[in-house]
Design goal:
Chain lengths: 284, 283
């Protein structure tokens, strides 16, 4: 009873604080998530508090098993928190919302392989009943933005990994959500393609001013992309252990001393957790 | 069996992307080589058979291929064989079409509605061990010796294979794909119709191919035991008269027919469903 009261009071405080600032978009208040049976629960998330501002590029960074994907799924509405509140634009999140679109690591399974690039783009417009005369304009606009307008008749199987990921981004942008939730979207790509995707994504972000919540375990990726990096500790009972603001101008170069210093700082912060995560994986 | 075949299907789908990228000349050569080796293999096999039947075995028990051909020609000329083929084919196609249709509908529903699956799966799991052959006696009692009992038997054989493969296909629809559709704004019904069912098509088609092959296997005993027409009846009649050459004509007909129908089925699938057949999902 007592902890519930405090967390409630805390939530109210956080919310009041944010309303004053007036720009918070996603709010997570004391979110806990446990899996498994009631008798033997596994606490994945142990009290997460996070406020995400509109237009912000936020990275959730942590080793595997820290629950960052769980948190993203909760934000998307695919999973419900065991306790705590999640709200988007002030309204509590119940189920997947049309304002938040998730992007998956495996674009091959997220895309519709039986539809061409253009038909994949149409899917969201059709199910959202966007008037048909607007389709060509929207599709052209976003395919051009991700540089796929020359490939509109191809099927996903005919695209490279990077192109598939760009199509996934364009397909999400076409339904004009406020938030992109990205679950290690570039982790399966080769290093060179990944770097190109970083440039492309930052470019898209600059053009569209979407709010991006980006999950990664790659420190370099987080440091290159984010406005803010939330470092998550390894579970059970993961929490956000540190929040770092990154105010270096973009494009960022990991060889730039200020950026490199941040990289090393995060690496040292993560070192004990990385070791723990490895031990856990070996035990499992 | 269904499982092994579906894995092969995956491999084929994954491999086809590579062949498309190979230069045209290499592709033509590859096609030629397969054809050539098939012709060579059959020629050698027939040659050995001809030799063994002529000099080693009793040609009455194992008639040589040339004798079989000799017997086949008048059967073809008189149209006798085509009548039996037509009768058997109609039985197979009607039973197969009904079994596939009901199997697909049942399969997608079972794959999507957990409660329905939990209720019906135990029944399916038990009944699927009753091969069509095992059902022949009761089918004759229920439906008589005419066409209805054959339709029923082929339906019986097809239904279970198609249901099981369809459920597997529905279940294997990537979660990411369904969630992506949900994010894009699709309702549960739209996800079911526009995402899950198309994703299951390769599995459904694999199930139908296996079921088609099994239909060819089950029509024969049905016609041997309880029919007055069809290829199975031709086998039965020839056996009564010890006409081994005619038996072999009937057996060869089954081989060729099964092969041809599977080829036509695949061609149709390539024509109509090609875009759904790609199982490539990993980057």
């Amino acid at each position: 009873m007592v902890p519930a009261l405090t967390s409630l009071a805390h939530g109210v405080l956080v919310r009041r604080h944010c309303r004053k600032a007036g720009v918070s978009l996603l709010e997570i208040v004391d979110v806990r998530k446990s899996y498994g049976s009631e008798a033997d629960p596994y606490l994945a998330l142990g009290g997460i508090d996070l406020t995400i501002e509109e237009g912000e590029f936020l990275c959730l960074l942590g080793p595997s098993g820290c629950g960052k994907s769980t948190l993203l799924n909760i934000l998307a509405g695919f999973e419900q928190p065991t306790s705590g509140d999640v709200s988007a634009n002030g309204a509590p999140v119940r189920g997947s919302g049309r304002d938040r679109v998730m992007l998956f690591q495996d674009a091959g399974s997220a895309l519709f392989p039986w539809l061409t690039v253009e038909e994949n783009m149409r899917f969201g417009l059709r199910v959202r009943r966007v008037p048909q005369q607007e389709w060509p304009r929207v599709i052209d606009h976003y395919l051009r933005m991700v540089d796929l307008d020359q490939h509109r008749r191809k099927f996903p199987a005919q695209l490279s990994g990077g192109m598939r990921q760009r199509l996934q981004i364009a397909r999400a942008l076409a339904v004009e959500p406020g938030v992109l939730l990205m679950d290690e979207p570039f982790a399966a790509l080769d290093a060179l393609t990944r770097r190109r995707m970083h440039v492309a994504l930052l470019d898209i972000w600059r053009q569209t001013r979407k709010t991006i919540v980006f999950v990664t375990h790659d420190i370099g990726e987080a440091v290159t992309l984010a406005d803010r990096i939330c470092i998550m500790s390894v579970g059970p009972g993961s929490t956000i252990s540190r929040v770092l603001a990154v105010d270096q101008p973009r494009p960022r170069d990991l060889r730039d001393p200020a950026v490199a210093r941040l990289f090393i700082e995060i690496e040292e912060l993560l070192a004990p957790d990385m070791a723990r995560s490895e031990v856990r994986e070996r035990a499992a | 069996m269904a499982k092994a075949d579906s894995i092969q299907g995956v491999k084929r789908a994954a491999g086809s992307g590579e062949t498309a990228r190979r230069p045209r000349r290499a592709r033509t050569w590859a096609r030629y080589r397969t054809l050539l080796s098939a012709v060579a293999s059959l020629t050698v096999a027939l040659g050995i058979w001809q030799f063994l039947s002529s000099f080693v075995f009793n040609p009455i028990l194992i008639p040589p291929p040339l004798k079989v051909l000799q017997t086949a020609i008048p059967m073809i000329m008189s149209g006798e064989i085509f009548r039996d083929v037509a009768v058997s084919m109609v039985r197979i196609l009607v039973g197969f079409a009904l079994g596939s249709l009901v199997g697909i509908v049942t399969g997608v529903l079972l794959g999507r509605i957990r409660l329905l699956h939990d209720l019906l799966d135990p029944i399916i799991e038990l009944l699927r061990y009753l091969s069509p052959t095992a059902m022949i006696p009761i089918a004759v009692i229920w439906f008589g010796i005419g066409e209805a009992s054959k339709y029923f038997l082929i339906f019986w054989g097809t239904f279970f294979i198609v249901v099981i493969n369809t459920v597997a296909g529905v279940w294997r629809t990537p979660v990411a794909r369904q969630r992506a559709a949900e994010c894009l704004g699709a309702t549960q019904l739209q996800i079911f119709l526009m995402v899950v069912i198309p994703s299951a098509v390769p599995y459904i088609v694999t199930g139908m191919r296996v079921a088609m092959a099994s239909s060819f296997m089950s029509i024969i005993p049905a016609e041997i035991l309880a029919a007055d027409s069809g290829i199975g009846y031709l086998l039965q009649k020839s056996a009564m008269l010890m006409q081994t050459d005619r038996i072999f004509v009937a057996l060869a007909t089954i081989c060729l027919l099964g092969f041809a129908v599977d080829r036509i089925f695949r061609l149709l699938v390539d024509r109509v469903l090609a875009r759904y057949m790609s199982l490539v999902s990993v980057a």
